[in-house]
Amino acid sequence: MVSPFDRRPLPDYFISSPLVALLYPLHQLLLRLRGPPRLAPPDALRVVCISDTHTLEWPDIPDGDLLIHAGDLSNDGSVREIQTTVNWLRSLPHRHKVVICGNHDGYFDVRSRCAEDRDDPSSTNSSFAAVSSSTASIHSLNELNAASRIDWGDIHYLQHSAVTLTFPPPESSSSSTTALTSARPRSLNIYGAPQIPAIVPLGPEHAFPYPAHHDAWSRTVPPETDILITHTPPQSHLDLSPVFSTGCPNLLAEAWRVRPALHVFGHIHESAGQEPVFWDEAQRAWERLCTARRPRAQYSRLASLPGFLRDLFDLPGWLDVARVVAYGVLGVVWARIWGGENRSGGWMVNAACMYRASGRLGNPLSVHGVFST
To answer: 20 to 30 Å CA-CA from 278: which of 124, 244, 252, 285?
Structure first.
């Protein structure tokens, strides 16, 4: 049986939905042709994004103003492994560092701690051992009164919590507009949360799973968030979509509500990369197409063979294809011919460093310029 966290062979996408499989490369091309989704001024803050290092250390992390690690610092979730990774992160020169945990970092979910890190190794013996996963997944570490044994140093650890970081003004500027504001410090509002949908049965060692049908996201992210950090991807973006999506639809809805300039996540090693988002009708139509085809992922290859017939008679699907293309082309015309500026979009970044399930770090790193508030 193929793991839902592994990319399927290309024919599986065509068998399940030839319409969307053919649209996908065109949609991605139009996204890139539209240019950056948000203008980055000369004094933009340089944000370096990593995730899913699993105890390994990237030998040459690019310099920047902010370093983000989106979870899975360890393999076994022990204080021992997590602290080793934290010590490596602390040694890096970035002015600010923000970290969340992932499902492999079991120490942060008291129910998932390994025996060596429990107060009573014979039982979970935690203050919320009886709390359901769906409830515990939306509470912060402080709210649950769970003291941490990790020595974070200058790192900001977020668990259903936010932080506002302040950066000094740029040292110099050649533009008169920027010079007027160059004396002001810059700031970013960052929110981080670790919970993941349990799309497969997960063992007790995995941290913060919630039932896939449960909404663990609505109204949890502050509306002023500039950078959203989660371990799971949102549905339809860098999550093995289309069809074989592993992301969370409720997280996607929350991202639409907040519309952060940058959304960083990991978890799905096979989908590492970055994608512009414009929060427009082309994006809505693409996401509807992915959502409508997600149930087909559970079909066998034989049962998926009639996929072309399902697509052929899917009138709403054809209308959404037209919307993806039409609004995408209008976006290209606006940016490339009329010279319009994209101001309110953002980037989604799957920052997983682990290359597939190889046990080595090999995916390209992501570095972004983010406009400060």
So the answer is: 244
Q: Which residues of the chain have pLDDT under 50?
A: 124-134, 136, 140, 143-145, 176-178
Distances (CA, A) of 331 to 233, 335, 342, 348, 357: 25, 6, 9, 18, 37
CB 366 within 8 A of CB 271: no
Instruction: Identify whether 348 is part of a domain.
Output: yes
Residue 57, classified by CB atoms within 10 Å of its CB into exposed (0-12), middle (13-18) or buried (19+), is middle
pLDDT tens for 32-86 read 999 899 876 777 899 999 999 999 999 899 999 999 999 999 999 999 999 999 9
Residue 18: CB atoms within 10 Å:
15
- pTM metric for this prediction: 0.91
The closest of 368, 371, 345, 344 to 186, measured between CA atoms, is 371
Q: Is the CA virtual torsion 299, 303, 308, 312 positive or negative?
A: negative
Q: Quick one: what percent of the chain has pLDDT higher than 90?
A: 67
* Phi, psi of 352, deg, nearest 5: -55, 125
How big is the chain by its Cα radius of gyration, in Å? 21
**Sole residue written with tokens 């990790």:** 150
CA separation, residue 28 to residues 38, 192, 249, 316 (Å): 17, 27, 20, 21
CA–CA separation, 370 and 39 (whole Å): 9
Structure token pair of residue 56: 């390994």
CATH number at residue 123: 3.60.21.10
Provide the residue range defining the domain that includes 143.
42-278+342-370
Residue 83 to residues 45, 55, 79, 300, Cα–Cα distance (Å): 28, 10, 6, 43
Taking the C-alpha atoms of residue 77 and residue 72, their distance in angstroms, rounded to an integer, is: 8
